[in-house]
Each structure stands twice: as C-alpha cells, then as structure tokens.
C-alpha cells in the first residue's frame, strides 16, 4: 500500500502591461513665417503636437511584465529645417551615452537598450552613439522637412514622428546579479539633436543647430519570489522511521529578490482553516502532518490548513532559478502519517494536493 502527497506551487507577482503609442505628425508651434527664422523654429522638440519649451520630455514609468521582458515605446516629434524661412529640410542625428537605471542606493542596476526610430523612414540609432552629424547621410541618418523639398506628408509646419524604444531582459539581469533589489529604479536619459552643418538639400540658409533633450525613466520592480525543487512525494512502508510512522522529506529552494524575508502559506484540499491536512482515497481518508523549516536549522514548524508562518525569520537567500544549476536548497518539507492509522485503511491510493504560497515579508 502506497500513499502519495502531490505538491504544487503558487507564485506571487505584480503584473502590469506596457502600451505602445503611435502619434501621427501634428502641427508644431510656432509655424515658420515670412521673416528669417530663429533656432527656435529651425529645430523644435514636440510632444503630442505641442512645442516643448524646456526640452524635457514627460517622465515615463513602467512596471514588471509577467515574462520579465521590458519593452516600451515613447512617442515624440522633431522639426528640423534651415533657419531662413525653413525652406529646406535639414538632416540631423541624435547623440547619447545611453542609460542605466539605478535604485536609491545605487547598488541595483537596469542597463537599458535604447533605440530611436524615425517612423516615416524607419531609420534607427541605438545608444550609445556620439558621432557628430556634420553633413551628409552617413552620420546624419534622420531627415527633416522643409517647404521646398519635403518629406511628404511631413512638411516644415509639422513635427516629424519619432519613437524612443526601451527594452531590457530583467530575468537575465537578475540571474547575473545586476538587478538585485525590488522598488523603483530610475535615471535620466539625455540625448542631443545635432543638425547637419549644411542643408541636405540645395538652397541658401544656415543650419548646424543642436538641442539637448532630457527624459526621466522609472521602472518599478515588485517583490519577486520564486519557489523551486518541489516534486510529488511518495510515502510507503519502506520509508518508515523511528515510531514506524510513514515519513518523507524533501529539500527545496525559496528565492526572494535581494534575499529578503518571506512567509509560507499552506493549503491542502477539502479541509477547513485550522484543520489537519488529509489524504483522501475512494471511500476513506487519513490525516497527515506537514512541517517546514530551514535546511540549516533543526527547527521545523507544524502547518495546518491556511497557516501562514515565517518562523526563524526565513530569508530567500537561495539561488534564483537561472543560477541554481547545482540544486541549491534552503528549505525542508517533511510529511508524516501515523502508521497505526494508515494500516487500518483499506488498500488503495490516498492523495492530497498541497499549495505552498511564498509571501514577501
């Protein structure tokens, strides 16, 4: 006669979706006039079709996605033309060292992959890139819009659409011990709009303007926990110990980002809160005891239905899944069944499904 205890795992995680917005080219004030234009008109930064006076794009915030892959698009617009009458489109580039987000202590980091893409042409630059634009197309990949020769349908009166693409593999950063804490990670990306020294089209007039742009990016990392190493447990006469109770033990791993404290909630099947767990067969059932504790401690804590316990200030200092190649464990699960009660049952298979939920403390 064999008895089985099946163990499943529940995982707590905050999930939020990021959205991608594509804004069509909109009129950007001030419009070019009949008189020679100033640099304010010749090189203009816009957001949602409105000119930005202080050259700061709106702060951007995002949260953890279920697959651990961060991917987001931030739309904005740029107008680039020659100063005099804005008659010519003027090529330009974007320069930046890139961006790494940090937590408050500076000990946890999220290096971002940052790419800028011009919607109409598909031209892209991935930071870091600090080439001077100067002239021509090699170092000036982005096209402006002028009145005489236009990037249709984006004319000089319009801001040309761009998107700032940010991405990061947060799982890989956790596994490499680069991302080590939960909470807000932030930083300010600075990039320079660098116009060509000469117009990319023929015609008189000056260009060669530049403008620095800032955008603050914040990523919220929730309390991430992970439980691994638990499998189905089988109890039989061959596993009896002192007192001839049926017995099984299994080590497992609980990881929490930053190695913080956690509690475990235990829930079996078909019993009320505070009651002992039960293995159920076709016609009868039997109670069993379950204990959990640190692998490096002798103290194991008794659990009953819906108990939430964290005895001994348990810490999630086990290796994360991606790094746990040697089967590192920090917790122990023990199950016992009274032999006399078990031997009185009819032959058959008795099972229960146990759900263990790890809760950050």
Structure, described:
With 361 residues, this protein is mostly beta strands. It contains three helices and 23 strands. Helices cover 4% and strands 40% of the residues. Strands 3-2-5-11-9-10 form a six-stranded antiparallel beta sheet. Strands 14, 16, 18, 19, 20 and 22 form a six-stranded antiparallel beta sheet that branches. A hairpin with a 6-residue loop joins strand 7 and strand 8. The radius of gyration is 31 Å and the shape is rod-shaped. The relative contact order is 0.19.
Count the E strands: 23
Largest sheet, in brief, is: 6 strands, antiparallel
Radius of gyration: 31 Å
Q: Which strand-content bin applies to the residues?
A: 35-45%
N-end to C-end Cα span:
41 Å
CA-based shape? rod-shaped
Q: Taking strands numbered 1, 2, ... along the chain, how are they ordered across the largest sheet?
A: 3-2-5-11-9-10
Mean pLDDT: 80
The helix/strand series, from N terminus to C terminus, equals: EHEEEEEEEEEEHEEEEEEEEEEEHE
Low-confidence stretches: 1-30, 153-157, 200-205
**Fraction in helix:** under 10%
**How does the helix and strand content classify structurally?**
mainly beta
Entry summary:
By secondary structure, the chain is mostly beta strands. It is 4% helix and 40% strand.
Question: Helix and strand layout, with pairings?
Answer:
Elements: E1 3-10, H1 39-42, E2 43-47, E3 50-51, E4 60-63, E5 69-80, E6 92-95, E7 100-102, E8 109-111, E9 113-118, E10 124-126, E11 160-169, H2 170-175, E12 183-195, E13 210-221, E14 225-228, E15 233-235, E16 246-256, E17 262-267, E18 277-280, E19 285-294, E20 301-303, E21 308-309, E22 331-337, H3 339-343, E23 353-360
Parallel strand pairs: 1-23, 4-13
Antiparallel strand pairs: 1-15, 2-3, 2-5, 5-11, 6-12, 7-8, 9-10, 9-11, 12-13, 14-16, 16-22, 17-21, 17-23, 18-19, 19-20, 19-22
């Amino acid at each position: 006669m064999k008895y089985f205890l099946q163990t499943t795992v529940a995982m707590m995680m905050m999930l939020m979706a990021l959205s991608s917005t594509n804004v069509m080219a909109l009129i950007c004030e001030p419009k070019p006039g009949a008189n020679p234009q100033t640099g304010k008109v010749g090189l203009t930064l816009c957001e949602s079709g409105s000119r930005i006076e202080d050259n700061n794009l709106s702060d951007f915030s995002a949260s953890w996605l279920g697959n651990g892959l961060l991917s987001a698009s931030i739309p904005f617009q740029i107008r680039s033309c020659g100063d005099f009458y804005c008659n010519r489109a003027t090529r330009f580039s974007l320069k930046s060292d890139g961006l790494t987000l940090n937590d408050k202590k500076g000990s946890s980091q999220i290096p971002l992959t940052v790419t800028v893409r011009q919607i109409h042409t598909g031209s892209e630059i991935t930071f870091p890139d600090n080439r001077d634009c100067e002239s021509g197309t090699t170092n000036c990949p982005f096209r402006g819009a002028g009145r005489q020769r236009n990037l249709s349908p984006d004319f000089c009166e319009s801001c040309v659409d761009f998107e700032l693409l940010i991405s990061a593999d947060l799982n890989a950063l956790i596994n490499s011990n680069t991302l080590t804490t939960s909470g807000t990670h932030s930083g300010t990306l600075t990039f320079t709009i660098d116009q060509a020294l000469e117009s990319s089209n023929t015609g008189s007039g000056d260009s060669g303007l530049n403008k620095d742009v800032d955008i603050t990016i914040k990523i919220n990392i929730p309390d991430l926990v992970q439980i691994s190493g638990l499998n189905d447990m089988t109890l039989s006469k061959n596993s009896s110990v002192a007192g001839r109770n049926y017995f099984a033990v299994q080590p497992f791993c609980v990881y929490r980002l930053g190695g913080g404290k956690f509690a475990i909630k235990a829930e079996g099947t078909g019993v009320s809160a505070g009651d002992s767990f039960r293995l159920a067969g076709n016609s009868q059932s039997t109670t069993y005891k379950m204990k959990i504790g640190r692998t490096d401690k002798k103290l194991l804590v008794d659990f009953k239905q819906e108990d939430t316990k964290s005895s001994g200030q348990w810490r999630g200092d086990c290796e994360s899944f991606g790094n746990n190649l040697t089967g590192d464990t920090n917790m122990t699960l023990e199950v016992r069944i009274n032999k006399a009660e078990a031997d009185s049952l009819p032959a058959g298979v008795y099972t229960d499904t146990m759900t263990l939920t790890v809760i950050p403390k």
